[in-house]
Amino acid sequence: MAQRAGVVVFPGTNCEHDVVEAFARLGVPAELVWHGARSLSGFDVVVLPGGFAHGDYLRPGAIARFSPVMSAVADFAAAGGPVVGICNGFQVLTEARLLPGALQKNKGLTFVCQVTELEVASDRSALTAGVEVGRRLRVPINHFEGNFTAAPEVLRALEDEGRVVLRYLDNPNGSAHDIAGVCNGPGNVVGLMPHPERATSELLGLTDGLVLLGALLASAGAPPAMVPA
Amino acid sequence: MAIFEALVEVQLRPGISDPQGATIERALPALGFAGVSGVRAGKAFRLQVEAAGAAEARRVVEELCSRLLANPVIEDTAVSITASAP
């Protein structure tokens, strides 16, 4: 079980407090980490939350990738530490090449803000460890650039290696293979467009995000979900 | 050292869907433009680079392209370099 979570804040990040609140609900203290930080020592799970890091100028995540904290994120991930990028955080992780593919403008050029139904496609990631494959979850999305795109051979590898973590049942943005979330080879770096932290309260109508964040916190501090090939 | 002007054009790679270009193209008939097709949206950047020669300026700009201006997963770049007027 995780003891202490780090939530990275870039200029323009705006979902950090929701993540801290969701973790508190699950009994794990979380701390905000400014993007200028050069170390993530003391944390056993790191989240890159949603928002508009560096104004999303050039491309979402393109500038954030060069923030000092990203070297620490890369080191933390290389050491097997669980890293989850939510929405803009997912975009940052793809730009940083910690995850494959890219997130393009949505098909139809519409900003989508709605509850989506997801299916857990793999339990081989830090975010879905121990969650039954095929389980359906209702989690909101809120983005303009969530259209997951990758070369055909990359998509094939993601499928073959069980690295498609979550899929949309009703694809809202044109993502290849209905992909809502993917992970790296070892499974400790995960990116997803839906916002599990916004589905953590009965009062707000959705609680399925607790399944994912709970799995993440439970797997953190334990050995990586997948043994590197 | 001389100053070179660089023009960088960033375009989505062939085969990558371009929702922006497609939307623009769909709007054209309503504006009375028949027979216009193949619309692809992209970005352009103008830079000034101090370098010993055009080849060095190109090398610097191409590295800048691959590290920042374009995402090679989905985008291609075309660089043109011209010597700046003295």
Task: Please render the helix and strand layout as text.
The complex is a heterodimer of chains A (229) and B (86).
Chain A: E1 5-9, H1 16-25, E2 30-34, E3 45-48, H2 69-78, E4 83-86, H3 88-95, E5 102-104, E6 112-120, E7 136-143, E8 147-149, H4 152-160, E9 164-168, E10 179-183, E11 189-192, H5 209-219
Parallel strand pairs in A: 1-2, 1-3, 3-4, 4-11
Antiparallel strand pairs in A: 5-8, 6-7, 6-9, 9-10, 10-11
Chain B: E1 2-12, H1 19-27, E2 42-51, H2 54-69, E3 75-83
Describe the structure in your own words:
The complex is a heterodimer of chains A (229) and B (86). Chain A is an alpha/beta fold. Chain A has a single domain, classed as 3-Layer(aba) Sandwich (Rossmann fold), CATH 3.40.50.880. Chain A is built from five helices and eleven strands. Chain A has a nine-stranded mixed β-sheet, with helices on both faces. Chain A has a two-stranded antiparallel ribbon with strand order 5-8. Chain A is globular. The two termini of chain A are 25 Å apart. In chain A, 57% of the residues are buried. The model of chain A is unreliable at 223-229 (pLDDT under 50). Chain B has 86 residues and is α+β, with helices and mostly antiparallel strands. Chain B has one domain (2-83): Mth169, Chain: A (2-Layer Sandwich). Chain A binds chain B through residues 58-59, 62, 66, 94-95, 100-102, 104-109, 147, 149-151, 174, and chain B through 16-17, 19-20, 23, 68-69, 71, 73-74.
